[in-house]
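This protein record is not my work; I was only asked to verify it. The record follows directly below this note.
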Amino acid sequence: MNPVIEVINKRRSVRSYEPKPIPRDIINTIIEAGNQAPSQGRMVKGEILFQPWRFVVVEDPEFKQKLVQTTLPIWKKFIESMKETFPEVYEKAMTLYEAMDEPKDMVYYSAPVILFVIGPASYAVSCALACENIMLAALSLGLGSCYVGFGMMVKGNADVVQTLELTDDERIYGPIVLGYPKDIPEARALDQHKSYVEPKIKWI
């Protein structure tokens, strides 16, 4: 099979990681892959510039814990709201939470690296393309990844905002957690994958 198509087909959202650091050269290679994504041009001081994003690599355990303390209450509130409407989802989430080792981290999954992709709010498509490149590059290099939506909900913590150097016109895309997988979700046949929907195609 074509190696690019193979990587795309094998990508999974990994939520369990080995406590093993990722070499800096591998992280830089992954970021460079993100930086190669197509992007919308923007005018800055009379010059058209591309690559509207920037990256923040989080490895520091103390700052990671600050991120968890900021986002975990939001996750808990969301899951609690599903208790009556989606009891199966609630039970599954709480079972995973209770089984998790301390300190419990249902947002970043104790991954060794949290990679923030940050860019202007008006460049959402460009930044999303960079995120996809990052996740595919990670898999090609033997790493797992997961795009964690709750991880962007950190603007309520002034210390986090200051450390990430977030400006009013910027938005977090991701973040994406990276690491060596402890467990990889089983690859199932597409016709057995309940979440898989066949592409809707109109040929003209």
Notes: The CA atoms of residues 34 and 131 lie 6 Å apart. The longest strand covers residues 170-179. Residues 3-192 form a domain with the NADH Oxidase fold (CATH 3.40.109.10). Residues 61-81 form the longest helix (21 residues).
